Amino acid sequence: MAIATNPPGSAPDSPLDRSAALAPTPWWRRAPSLRLQRAFAWAAVVANGAIAVTGATVRVTGSGLGCPTWPECQPGSLVPVAREDLSAVHQAIEFSNRTLTGVVLIASLGTFLLIWLARPQRPSLTWLAAVLPAGVVFQAVWGGLTVLTGLAWWTVAPHMLVSLLLLFVAITVLVRLDEGDGPPESVVPRPLQLLTGATVGVLVALCVAGTLVTAAGPHGGDDATPRLDVPVRTLAQVHADLMFLYLGLLIATSVGYLAVRAPRRLLVRTAVLIAVTAAQGLIGLVQFATGVPEALVVAHVLGAVLLTAAAATVALATRTRTPGPACPG
Q1: Average pLDDT, integer, range 314-319
Q2: Do 111 and 129 touch, CB atoms closer than 8 A?
Q3: What is the distance between the alpha carbons of residues 7 and 204, in angstroms, rounded to a whole number?
Q4: pLDDT at residue 222 greater than cutoff 80
Q5: Bridge partners of 77?
Q6: Which of 210, 130, 206 lies closest to 172, judged by CA?
Q7: Which of 20, 150, 280, 292 counts the most CB atoms within 10 A of its CB?
Q8: How far apart are CA 226 and CA 231, in angstroms?
Q9: Cα separation of 121 and 139, whole Å?
Q10: Cis status, amide bond into 71, omega within 30 of 0
Q11: Which pTM does this prediction carry?
């Protein structure tokens, strides 16, 4: 008598086979959830902003050579070692900043890997997320160059600027996670799009000028740190002029948004950006009038972080993306 068999490709009919077919997929084989991707993207945003602030703390306290070697903190040791010629506080501050680099790397690399493993795949977002861990690796290598050159101003300034750039990218990744992959569609007329782009350009110049002021000022490192040989007052004036230009462009842009009845989320984010800009300008004025105290320098860097974050959310709210064709998984 012939024994019945299931034809190739047919569904299993034994209880054991049906049980195996219905078994849940192990967690390590599942595609990452959108919630997990968002969590890591948020961590990348916070970590990139935090390391910019701790980096400023290192600089104003003169702790940049608290760990005089790289990648070790002390010759033969990855962690601080008690030494008579080095302050324990300076070692702790510099070592904490270096440790935070590891947190930034975990958040950034995790964001990239989760987006890469997600299904359906999103190539454009994956490439954008790849900038984050690549940027952290660059920062680590550049940090070694900074130590080896004795904290020369031209090596320290890019540290801050790259951190702000990576913060902008991290926020873009976070926003893109909730968008489609279709082509961007503007929610405001093109002249306002261009004006928004101009404000971002001025903000970049403003941040560059700010790092140059620090490089030439009293908080460019310890007493032995080479300073930028340009009068601080001249650089501070350029920095202030750029701030007024930025604020003027921002107000003009917001009036334009109101005139065209831009979406509410864009108007709210613009209002927040104006408030942050005004607060940052006030800190700068008080800072200059009071002789640039260390605490206000750190507060000013925190303001730059918040300003960059707010500017990114405004720029990203001027357009939206519709769902594009799904990529193969």
Answers
A1: 95
A2: yes
A3: 66
A4: no
A5: 74
A6: 130
A7: 280
A8: 14
A9: 28
A10: yes
A11: 0.84
